[in-house]
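Figure 6 in text form: structure in, sequence out.
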């Protein structure tokens, strides 16, 4: 390897814990394949390791040079690799990235998520003690607070499984490291989904228990019903967070109750704007040199998220068109003042959008429409995984396809313009970002836990199939929306503008 490779991680902690975290990483290096020896000076917060193939790794704690640019107690972990093979470098950095969160960082997240972290006080009788939980939730700091609350509500770590969706989150490696290293929770990658489900069912069944699914995107139950039907009876209910997950259940006969936080009044009224705003902010962050004001934009899908995205873009002074295959939503977009059209192709040809934001859920935009775009147009998705755009069509219709790293994928169409699919078509609000602020997402995470408690307790209102009315009633009865209003509504005695 001709050049040294460097990886840095900033984290917040006291000096003693910072050194402890470094020592933990050094201990893991001793078990990294190919490592011959590890040497260190704990007092100097410096460790090094040598590989069989000649590679040298180095770990040390440093301080950011400009302390005014970071929060108090910020430490910088600096990992450097030299001389060895690419495989050795990959093994070294894979270990280094497994840095759990510090007590300080978790404490900060707990304070930012008072509803979720306060659930154990609401139910001190540990209502989840008799179930397992299988989770497919976004790997961000807020997720760790939800996990801590589920454990405090009675779930045993041995009866919990987490599916890592393999999105490029800002802190995905650290979240996984925390789940495994601090709690001993089994973490499986989405690419091994069926094996992870089977392992979970086997472990929890052996303990004489059944499980609740807590999903964000419809990953688990469709896979169970399609590929592991004999395991379906193990699950007592599903809590689903997203409308894309609900769509994946369309046409399926559900043998268990669905607690649909995704379709709840609570989520629809409060979270949609936050997701839209985060999506636009992350788009602007990734494209800081673009000028979008005054430019044409197109929003695909005028549902809860799409309508808010259209409004945010309009507030950013873009000229916004919207399209939805549902005529009722199309009329709603028209009457709100957005440009609309009965056919997508005609709308794209007439409007020539510089920015296309997909909020429809699946297959909303393909090669035929892309050929009608102006040169340099940008496609952005807000929906689960990379299903929004017909990426295979774009690839097949391109003379050149270029991986542009963190920006995404560039497509030089053979008979059309060059375009950029930002974030490779993955949901932009999670692309190397934490999406919503913790205080914003707190209510929805708490709602997921409320659903799990209701299912575990056998609430008689929750029957096999959709239970939207019951979901709304149970969420209202839980008191979490009242608490949210007390926290962020007008002061006591206030309420007047």
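Output sequence:
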């Amino acid at each position: 390897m001709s050049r040294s490779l460097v990886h840095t991680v900033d984290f917040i902690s006291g000096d003693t814990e910072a050194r402890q975290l470094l020592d933990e990483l050094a201990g893991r290096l001793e078990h990294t394949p190919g490592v011959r020896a590890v040497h260190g000076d704990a007092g100097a917060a410096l460790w090094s390791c040598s590989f069989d193939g000649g590679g040298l790794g180095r770990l040390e704690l440093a301080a950011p040079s400009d302390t005014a640019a970071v929060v108090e107690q910020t430490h910088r972990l600096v990992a450097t690799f030299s001389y060895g093979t690419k495989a050795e470098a990959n093994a070294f950095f894979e270990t280094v990235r497994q840095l759990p969160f510090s007590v300080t960082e978790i404490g900060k997240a707990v304070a930012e998520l008072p509803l979720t972290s306060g659930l154990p006080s609401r139910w001190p009788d540990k209502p989840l003690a008799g179930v397992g939980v299988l989770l497919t939730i976004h790997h961000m700091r807020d997720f760790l607070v939800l996990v801590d609350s589920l454990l405090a509500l009675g779930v045993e770590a041995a009866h919990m499984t987490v599916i890592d969706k393999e999105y490029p989150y800002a802190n995905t490696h650290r979240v996984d490291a925390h789940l495994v290293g601090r709690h001993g929770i089994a973490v499986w990658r989405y690419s091994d989904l069926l094996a992870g489900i089977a392992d979970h069912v086997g472990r929890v069944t052996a303990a004489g228990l059944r499980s609740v699914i807590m999903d964000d995107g419809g990953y688990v139950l469709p896979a169970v019903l399609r590929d592991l039907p004999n395991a379906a009876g193990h699950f007592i209910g599903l809590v689903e967070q997203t409308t894309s997950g609900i769509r994946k259940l369309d046409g399926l006969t559900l043998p268990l109750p669905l607690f649909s936080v995704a379709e709840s009044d609570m989520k629809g009224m409060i979270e949609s704007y936050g997701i839209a705003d985060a999506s636009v902010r992350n788009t602007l962050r990734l494209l800081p040199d673009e000028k979008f004001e005054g430019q044409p934009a197109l929003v695909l899908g005028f549902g809860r998220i799409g309508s808010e995205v259209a409004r945010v873009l309009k507030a950013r002074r873009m000229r916004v068109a919207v399209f939805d295959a549902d005529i009722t939503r199309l009329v709603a977009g028209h009457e709100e003042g957005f440009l609309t059209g009965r056919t997508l192709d005609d709308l794209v040809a007439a409007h020539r959008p510089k920015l296309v934001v997909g909020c429809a859920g699946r297959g909303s935009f393909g090669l035929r429409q892309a050929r009608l775009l102006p040169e340099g147009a940008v496609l952005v998705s807000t929906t689960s995984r990379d299903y929004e755009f017909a990426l295979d069509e774009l690839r097949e219709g391109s003379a050149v396809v270029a991986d542009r790293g963190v920006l995404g994928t560039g497509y030089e169409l053979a008979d059309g313009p060059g375009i950029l699919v930002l974030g490779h078509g993955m949901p932009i609000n999670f692309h190397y970002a934490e999406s919503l602020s913790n205080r914003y997402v707190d209510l929805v995470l708490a709602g997921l836990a409320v659903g799990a408690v209701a299912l575990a307790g056998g609430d008689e209102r929750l029957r096999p199939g959709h239970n939207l009315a019951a979901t709304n009633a149970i969420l209202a009865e839980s008191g979490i929306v009242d608490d949210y209003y007390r926290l962020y509504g007008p002061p006591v005695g206030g309420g007047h503008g």
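Caption detail: Residues 265-286 form the longest helix (22 residues).
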